Batch of 3 targets.
Target 1
Amino acid sequence: MPVSFEGRAWRAYPWLAPHPLEAQGYQAQPEGELFEPGQGDILLLFDASWYCNPWPAVDAAIARGARLCGMVHDLLPLQRSAWFRDGLQQRFHRHLLALSARAERIFVPSRTVQERLLAAPGLPDIEPQILRHGADFCPTTLAPGVLPDELQTFAGSLQGPLYFMLGTLEPRKNHALVLDAFERLWAEGHPARLLFVGHRGWTVDALLARIDNHPLLGKQLLQAGNLDDSALMWLFSHAAALLYMSRDEGFGLPVAEASMLGCPVICTDIPVLREAGGAWPRYVEPDASRLLEILLEPPMRGQADQACRTWDQVAEQLARYLCLDTAFASYNQSEG
């Protein structure tokens, strides 16, 4: 069940209201109730909680007999601190040390992160277990939806192939490199369109100025904030390809999501994205000239040729890792 923490207190919720981006309509979030996790409870600390201070509440729960498991999505704030805001490296490191000292299990989304975590200095001797993400990002009954007004003319027209990038505009995502390649296409009169889907992030002022002042803005180039799931489904169903030229990742979820839906993918040739996408994407070195060659001969749309994991399968694997059947049986016996 979903929970939140404040100080030493925990609050439980019967369910989470859908996020507005899920395209399921507005539903009010039920009010949570105070409770005290303890014997028989397992806390899953899987979110970006380094921005908070969960440890007073976690320690109080552990003192009552609760168990703690956590997820380390990547180590990029430690290993690539220049890609992030000032101070995150220290904050993330303190959180990782605190989690490692308390958790009985630590999960990672890929073999790449597992190897990096095992090699990280100063951490307790915990064997991280791989729990790869699911790729079914929305209900299978969700049909491609209507695009927002800002995208109707740009993306909904049939003039030229539409390519899109999905993710926050931030240094490691390589938006500038992709724009370099498209500007070469456009200089030759190519009708391709480029859509950046994602919020504006950090330390990309030069990129944002380049987008905002581009002569083809609104014609063959557009940047849009996060779209709801139905609009994303439209892109996965109609775009010529997803471009994912990230320099590094902990997993690369959009690559797996596009692969599961049969959307062509062109992505950076790095080990972690090969884990996420398997044989489906076209892999390319992070070079504008090489990307340009592939854009001139883009991959074809079709049925993905690899079996992607669903979130139900992830949940089943997590239950096996935590021996939940045994835990629930013991808990029920103790409750009498």
Note: DSSP finds 13 helices and 13 strands in the chain.
Target 2
Amino acid sequence: MDALFAPASPAFLADPYPAYAELRARGRVHYYEPSGQWLVPHHADVSALLRDRRLGRTYQHRFTHEEFGRTPPPSGHEPFHVLNDHGMLDLEPPDHPRIRRLVSKAFTPRTVERLRPYVEELAATLVRGLVAEGGGDLVGAVAEPLPVAVIAEMLGVPEADRGLLRPWSAAICGMYELNPSEETARRAVAASVEFTAYLRELIAARRKEPGDDLISGLIAAYEDGERLSEQEMISTCVLLLNAGHEATVNATANGWWALFRNPEQLAALRADPEGLPATAVEELMRYDTPLQLFERWVLDDIEIDGTVLPRGAEVALLFGSANRDEAVFADPDALDLSRPQNQNPHISFSAGIHYCIGAPLARLELAASLRQLLRQAPGLRPAADPVRKPNFVIRGLESLLVEV
């Protein structure tokens, strides 16, 4: 199993999909010793387990670390865990639905729709700059600055401070990889301390002078006598920033690299850039999934195909494998931008109570940058092979050099 599923191997990182196919062929659940996790590769199982309340993102709403058979994290990691554990992504009922309801009051479809002109104009400006230079790094020039600026605009982060956000986010997200090193933890803790202090000041300023931004909306959000605590607000802002741009950055870069390797699909898009089908964004999200793995704790024993996963076990739901499952997708290893919506039940935005609250915004950003690149750079082509990030869980490119 270790030779097949090898997330530290450059060859596996470059193309994990053949290994996933073999995992699916070998069975529905596999134990992976290096991370102590049960790998689940099939779409039906991943989809069902995302909705199964016998599993959870945390166990601390029901058990202590000791009761669950787990060692508490080192005390030196506390700033990261305080920040992470108060975000709704890592909470379960009753805290999760309470926070999600309050956040939803400030993160409405109307809020996202109001951002459309800003997103479209920013995408056009960024692509215009890339074209003026004759090309460059698609990640650094377009894929990264667009969603970072959009979520910063939503939160009300002053433009002068936005350069701080991406490094903090990258350091914190390093902890979501399998078996992060102590150096990764050190960087995540430092970023957590700095990011928390920054947001504490920003929240204090918005309490004094509310604005038309998400932080002001979170401060005002109120239901049944409850508000978000300051720590919940801070953790929510960090989650919205991290989740609000990581997926879009990586889906954009992964998507264009996929298009370059499938020229007939790219040609079909170029034939009608204004009529960009919604199916294109969904297919790019499916084909090379930006979040490859999502973890769950087993809160009560569960059986999968005759194998009992005991309480205290950790499950690794393989989104990337589920999105290539031949039992669900016709010709799953083919990029088909016209794949009908009702035949593309990808789970790139998760499912169940933890379904991505920012999915509509991510779709808006992906479509905007894709449309602008097709319109302004109809001859866009790779100038070199991409440099891949040395990550498995969050799959993306460090750089993708292009010419126009």
Note: The CA atoms of residues 164 and 368 lie 25 Å apart.
Target 3
Amino acid sequence: MANARGSFGQRLAAALRQAFGSLFTLRPAPGPRWPIALQASLAMAVPIAVMTVVGHPDIGYQAATGAFAALYASNRAAIDRVRVVPVVGAGLFAAAALGVWAGSSPLLTILGLALVTLAASAAAFGFSLGPPGPLFAVLIFGLSAHVSSVGAPAGVYLAAVAGGILLSILITAAPLVLASRRRMPRHPLRELLPGPSWSGPAGMLFLRAAIVALVGTALGIAIDPDRVYWIVGAAIAVIGTAAERQAAFHRGLHRMVGTLVGVVLYLLVAPVPITGIALALVLGGLQFAIEIVVVRNYALALTFITPLVLLLTSAATGVSGSIEVASERVIDTLVGATLGAITGLLHSRAARR
């Protein structure tokens, strides 16, 4: 018995050392990241800048939410990305439309969040979509419901989101102006998004997402019904796309630490009256930094993701950020990240990435 306890203690100590060590480790990038980072940055900044110039910055902030479509299939060549990104964009728009429809009712918003989390997770894992998985469908639903609840015109908002998604598709397709990019091997969509299949790792990831959808929603209702989507979103982000117990613990730790540092950064920036073109440059710069570092250190990426999401949410809803809002996001992230990490225990210890 003593040996067993000692063995467990040694494994736990080694796991903790590895986890905390990973906070300060920059993994090598799988390839050049600046092209994807530039595309994501433009998809975020351009709609804000353009709509500011024509006198409607609020619409630009709302359209910028469509920029998240440009983050998908980043490991694919442009000839293949132009097939995947429109499919993802359609899913994100559906989440936005459902959020707008449900936003007037707290009950419908909570039920819709659970439905979107389940549907987006089933699609992302069943068809091997890859990073960032179902996360942005959940966040766009929550943001859209919040925008609707504060009285933004539904038609204008959805048109703005659709415009942002369309811009993301066009930016993704931009490299195809080069003949060399058009001559690259093209893969059929059913090969790029194989499935559906929910056996093995995909089934376990979906099971974890389902638990998060139900338990996270219940926790959110107990804490504050208006903040449910932040808790569920944080948990879904921790699940990620890696079917591994160790990855769940590492991502949970990274999300907690990265969010805390990111909130501090946000509180330093929030009091400064940044709007219009200046805000477009700030958000575009943050998005560029995120895409450069996200494959190397998740906590470092969260340091930039947190202020970006908080600034964009504040701008899109017209509700200024505050220390109270930032502290709520920290609590929501801690709850959600802990939940997401705990569901990682469903993976067997022997599972490997």
Note: The radius of gyration is 20 Å.
